[in-house]
Amino acid sequence: MSAERTFEYIGTRPIRHDGLDKVTGRANYGADFTLPGMLHGHVLRSPHAHARIVSIDTSAAEATPGVKAVITGKDIPKTNAKLSLGEAAMELGPMGDNALAHDKALYEGHAVAAVAATSPEIAREAAEKIVVVYEVLKPVMTVDQALAPGATILHDDLVTKGKPLADAPKHTNVALRMELKRGDLEAGFAAADLIVERTFTTPMVHQGYIEPHACVARYGEDGQVLVWTTTQGHFIVRDASAGILGIDAAKVKVVPSEIGGGFGGKIPVYLEPLAIVLSRKAHRPVKMVMSRDDVFRASGPTSGTKVRMKIGAKKDGTLVAASASLYYEAGAYPGSPAGAGAMCVIAPYTIPNFMIEAYDIVVNRPKVAAYRAPGSPAAMFATESVIDEIAQKLGMDPIDLRLKNAAQEGDSAPYGPKYGPIGLKQVLEATKAHPHWKAPLGPNQGRGVACGFWFNAGLNSTATVSLSADGSATVVTGNPDIGGTRVAQAMMVSEELGIPVERVRPTVADTDSIGYNDLTGGSRVCYATGMAVIKAAQDARDQLCARAAKIWDVDPSCVAWERGRAIPLNGASDKEPLTVSALAAKMTATGGPIVGRGAVSAPMAGPGFATNICDIEVDKETGVSRVVRYTAIQDVGKAVHPSYVEGQMQGGAVQGIGWALNEEYIYDEAGHLENAGFLDYRMPVASDLPMIDTVLIEVANPLHPYGVRGVGEVPIVPPLAAVANAMAGATGVRFTDLPLSPPRVLKALSGA
Amino acid sequence: MSTIHVRTTVNGEPTEFLCEPAETLLDALRNRLGLTGTKEGCGTGDCGSCSVLLEGRLVPSCLVLAAEAIDREVLTVEGVAVGDALHPVQQAFLEQAALQCGICTPGLVVAAKSLLDRNTNPTEQEVRFWLAGNLCRCTGYDKIVRAVMDAAEVMRNETSEVRA
């Protein structure tokens, strides 16, 4: 097994191949492409959160000099097509309606028309001349408003999928209700010595990637389409754009640019179908770039949530029963991560009796997209806050309480399957042993700890490994590299072939140049695409062995591979070992090019667990708080490039700290977003933070040849409760509503 | 509106272009001069992705008019390395894995260079406050701060070698 394997390259920290271009400004991102004759697109967006579109008059815009095309919802076909991909099936009808509204504007910022013109300024000015007559409807901004009797209904044809309650109204904003249950809930709570029940809320927040959405599309008169775009999944852009527009996917080539952050937000299509249609109408390439304001109002933030959480425990800390109700805003169309939240909410613990229900609820906000472990942070904020309170009330160490109930290999996850080898207990033990846990606290400081869980995804990946005659190699995959996956893939080739990382060139290919790859998401690239890369490298290695057999004129069974060389076995032991370079130099004479191929469908992935320790200091006069020390501990399976694993943990922790302390979508009563900019949507900056210490625990994942498990998402799960629990320690107040912004903290302290 | 004739110096090269009166330096750099290393993250001066040095002063180029560059010197990320010699900050970013997606990196490289131009012995707190105008959403800043501290050390050693 992999645990026994010693690695030469895996676990080292080489410089990434795409690094130089990125530190010198040469790397090309979404907005960096230009084409001759290119036009610039501009989207006209609804000023209303909820309105019926009565009419659109585009004549003044079309008559503006420099305008080459104007489109409205009529130019985007309505479709019932679906795309099965990533973490769920995607409904293309709503995705197309979201890209350009057909009948109703469902949130402020919803696209209602688009213009292509010879300059961005002309396009913008022309768009402002489009006359849209709206019938303004009452907006539904929160889950409570959406569920209230007599609530305004967003979609007349919406029916509740899953398990609607028997007395649920037919006309509804609830897109899905699901249940997970086990054991006897009543008996479980009856046996508890202590029950804690609280209701928690988290605001809608944005992934906050620094690069706005951007693309260039060129539609040829022969129907062939080229799209350059910044995306987490160019195969999704291809299939979704083709599906929405009713064109053949094989006629669409999508070239991914470098991607300036995504975190789940760059999975759906927003601009691409519009750019394609504008280009078709104008017979010229069209570039479209979102402003930051557009990104906030009209991309895909994550759900605001309300979670009611009730957990019962025995005096000795044994958790005996849990019930939870999760209400997640989906935004304008169904598809919040409520179901994932329900599956995560008590996943770290073995609780014999539970009943969890989750609601996916449409509201007049932008349609949510994935955001790093989608659904889990808000759910586990509730669980980990209640667990902390139980520990406090029982007088137990909060880590001991978690250890007592921690899931381990063989336990049934609340969502069904039995866990394989998982590292939760090791992570908790490492947390307890960490000097941070025992360090003294200063005045006005508090310490919190919390756990996090995420499934991780596997899915489909393709890779090829090709040898050059000089013995260097290229590895080609189809996953945009957001955080250092290319260098990890090159390291895997090095490990299999025994050639230095610098002699392997990793490339992310367009949709025409590599087999299908699911998106960069679900913490899957290093894991599943890595498996495809290893397979491809092993295929190349097997071909190298066969070439050695040919050169030596022996049976292939007389050749083995060892540390970058073909070595002779019995029957050929008089031969000198042949290196990759020696074999590659003779490729032509021994049978031609050597191309290794790997294609995998990884239905499973090893789940990830993490804990965070947070120390916070609160200024009780102003309510301002500051994280003063932070440690993230995580089971990473096997860290391929430890620096980039640490980077995932540090970055996820800080996004979570932002979610906990400051970030929120603020709407007025009419449904207008009041803080659509980085000045008012307050993400953490360097001076807000301490160093983020990391501890990597490696519990090998048996599903992967090196033991790798996904590491990118679980880091954002623990911080919400870790920060809130620290705040409880510092102030004596248990906060249940995020963010813990200065006004909220001050109000609670002055009321206390 | 008539266009404005701008004579300026960009990365040490005498440069001329025409621009609209309301055009930003960021747009002129990217769209007229092809210097797309300077990125737009917000257009409102809040994210620092478009950081450049104007007469040695760190500015968000989205809040500077292109016409303000007349007779002044502009340094963009493309001008930070000299030939094949990376600036110590760039080298430290590579070695410390101080970038993930890399979109904020050009702005951070320019901002860090401008700090180290003034102070090659900054404290961690000085680094954090100097870089507070540059948003990074991937790294949590830990490795960025370490890289800048490392680069400072390299620059101090280079200076002392020269003195020796």
CATH topology of the largest domain in chain A: Aldehyde Oxidoreductase, domain 4
Tally of structural domains of chain B:
2
What does the average pLDDT of chain A come to? 96
Uncertain regions of chain B: pLDDT < 50 for 5+ in a row?
A: none
Low confidence ranges of chain A: none
Number of helices of chain B: 5
Classify the beta-strand content of chain B into a percent band. 15-25%
The oligomeric state is heterodimer
Number of helices of chain A: 21
Tally the structural domains of chain A: 3
Biggest β-sheet: strands ordered side by side in the sheet of chain B: 2-1-5-3-4
The CATH C-level name of the largest domain in chain A is Alpha Beta
Structural class of chain A: alpha+beta
CATH architecture of the largest domain in chain A: 2-Layer Sandwich
Question: Using only CA atoms, what is the Rg of chain B?
Answer: 16 Å
Strand tally of chain B, please? 5
* Helix fraction of chain B by DSSP (H/I, runs of at least 4): 25-40%
Task: Please summarize the sheet with the most strands of chain A.
Answer: 7 strands, mixed
**Which bin fits the share of residues in helices of chain A?**
25-40%
Number of DSSP-assigned strands of chain A: 29
Describe this structure in words.
The complex is a heterodimer of chains A (752) and B (164). With 752 residues, chain A is α+β, with helices and mostly antiparallel strands. Chain A contains 21 helices and 29 strands. Chain A has a 7-stranded mixed β-sheet, with helices on both faces. The radius of gyration of chain A is 27 Å and the shape is globular. With 164 residues, chain B is α+β, with helices and mostly antiparallel strands. Helix content of chain B is 36%, strand content 15%. Chain B has helices at residues 25-32, 88-95, 105-118, 124-130, 142-163; strands at 4-10, 13-19, 51-54, 57-60, 73-75. In chain B, strands 2-1-5-3-4 form a 5-stranded mixed β-sheet, sandwiched between helices. In chain B, β1 (4-10) and β2 (13-19) form a beta hairpin. In chain B, α2 (88-95) packs across α5 (142-163). The model of chain B has no long low-confidence stretch (mean pLDDT 96). The interface between A and B is large, with 59 and 58 residues.
